[in-house]
Design a protein that fits this description.
The complex is a heterodimer of chains A (301) and B (94). With 301 residues, chain A is an alpha/beta fold. A 6-stranded mixed sheet of chain A has the order 1-4-3-2-5-6. In chain A, strands 9-8-7-10 form a 4-stranded mixed sheet, with helices on both faces. In chain A, strand 3 and strand 4 form a beta hairpin. The N and C termini of chain A lie far apart (73 Å). The relative contact order of chain A is 0.17. With 94 residues, chain B is an alpha+beta fold. The two termini of chain B are 21 Å apart. Classes of the chains: A alpha/beta (301), B alpha+beta (94). Chains A and B meet through strand 9 and helix 7 of A and strand 1 of B. Strand 9 of chain A pairs parallel with strand 1 of chain B, so a sheet runs across the interface.
Chain lengths: 301, 94
């Protein structure tokens, strides 16, 4: 059998989990006239973001999947947004790395934890009324309290298991063979809201989901059961530190209404809305930290 | 700032909370560092440039096992870390 025949007979493997990568630039601003340009690089376990802040305002970002190398992921994320606006690394005054790969950002001047950066980013995105932040990342989940300046006052992180994380949702997306962006909407297309599957382990949740399909559940009903499990999981984390008004969700799962609505229902409060991509909160916070540092330096000089 | 280190899994919730405001300018001379038999505590400079204690990363995922020897079943009537921390910055959730 020749290679051509093999290529015809092997079915194409669809990546249902693959979420939309994006690059954005604020065309109304001109970075060439800016006094201070800072950059935040968030190298997460699943996604990497590079955010450019010009004179303290969001200018552009690139959000893409993290590769096998943290330095390469950081370099590629930044290259993506710089290419879009014709900027070079020398034009950026300060770079801060964050996320689990923060110490592996080769061109970063400083590293700051994603907890502090998410709080700062959420404060910018949602305003100074933000008090409780839920970051649903790729492989961990964080509950954060902050003050009116975006300074962390209480936090809790759970990175031991993938339940309640973006990776868990990717697993279910592949299992159901439904694009990840459609899961949220489909979870509401059920006659009766099902009970949650396991909320403590993605492996258990996956095998439970398979069992439910065999028992006659529709795909939508299984997705609803998983979204409910995820919501219950993160709400139990949030309740440990308490939830105050000014509730804000960051991370990729904030784009999944199936999970967000169920969290809101369980907590009895609405999450604050923003026009900015929820996935860039960490990198945005890092860039804003850089801006504050540079402003202080400039004022002292 | 209250920093919660630990996790929740199928067997329960295991968190050690450190009130870093009480940690700054520690009046117990960082006694937590030596009090813990597993030496889980470490002094770091946090994101706001304060020198505070935290739990070493690998221990954050194994607290239920790491702390078991210091619980009543291990022969202790009070936890060595919370006893040594006289400002009262350290608390266990279980």
């Amino acid at each position: 059998m020749n290679a051509e025949v093999v290529a015809e007979t092997v079915p194409e493997k669809k990546e249902f989990w693959r979420w939309q990568e994006s690059v954005w630039i604020d065309e109304t601003k001109d970075w060439k006239t800016a006094k201070i340009i800072t950059c935040g690089i968030d190298v997460g376990s699943v996604s990497s973001q590079a955010v450019l802040v010009v004179d303290g305002e969001l200018y552009g970002f690139n959000s893409m999947r993290t590769g096998s190398s943290s330095p390469d992921s950081a370099t590629n994320a930044l290259a993506g947004v710089m290419d879009k606006c014709g900027m070079k690394l020398e034009d950026i005054h300060y770079v801060i790395g964050t996320g689990y790969g923060r110490v592996n950002v080769p061109f970063a001047h400083k590293a700051i934890t994603e907890i502090a950066c998410h709080a700062r980013g959420a404060n910018y995105m949602g305003g100074n009324g933000v008090r409780t932040i839920l970051d649903m990342g790729g492989q961990d989940c964080k509950a954060i309290h902050c003050d009116e300046k975006g300074k962390v006052t209480n936090f809790l992180m759970n990175d031991k298991c993938a339940a309640g994380t973006g990776r868990g949702m990717e697993v279910i997306s592949d299992l159901m063979q439904i694009p990840i962006a459609e899961l949220g909407a489909r979870s509401f297309d059920v006659d009766v809201e099902p009970a949650a599957v396991s909320s403590v382990c993605v492996v258990f949740a996956k095998s439970e989901a398979l069992g439910l399909l065999k028992a006659g559940y529709t795909k939508n009903k299984v997705i609803a059961a998983y979204c409910q499990a995820m919501a219950e999981r993160v709400v139990s984390l949030l309740e440990r530190i308490g939830v105050e008004e000014g509730f804000f969700i960051t991370g990729g799962i904030a784009k999944n209404p199936g999970v967000v609505n169920r969290i809101e229902r369980l907590l009895g409060i609405k999450a604050m809305e923003t026009k900015v991509d929820s996935q860039i909160a960490g990198a945005l916070g890092a860039a804003l930290f850089g801006y504050t540092l540079m402003s202080k330096k400039a004022a002292a000089a | 700032m209250i920093a919660n280190y630990g996790y929740k899994d199928g067997s329960g919730e295991y968190y050690i909370s450190i009130d870093t405001d009480k940690c700054i300018g520690c009046t117990a001379e960082r006694a937590c560092l030596t009090a813990c038999p597993k030496q889980m505590f470490e002094i770091i400079t946090d994101d706001y440039d304060d020198e505070v204690a935290w739990i070493k990363k690998p221990n954050c995922r194994t607290l239920a096992y790491d702390c078991s020897e210091c619980k009543p079943a291990g022969g202790y009537s009070s936890l060595p870390c919370t006893t040594a921390c006289t400002p009262g910055a350290i608390k266990h959730s279980w």
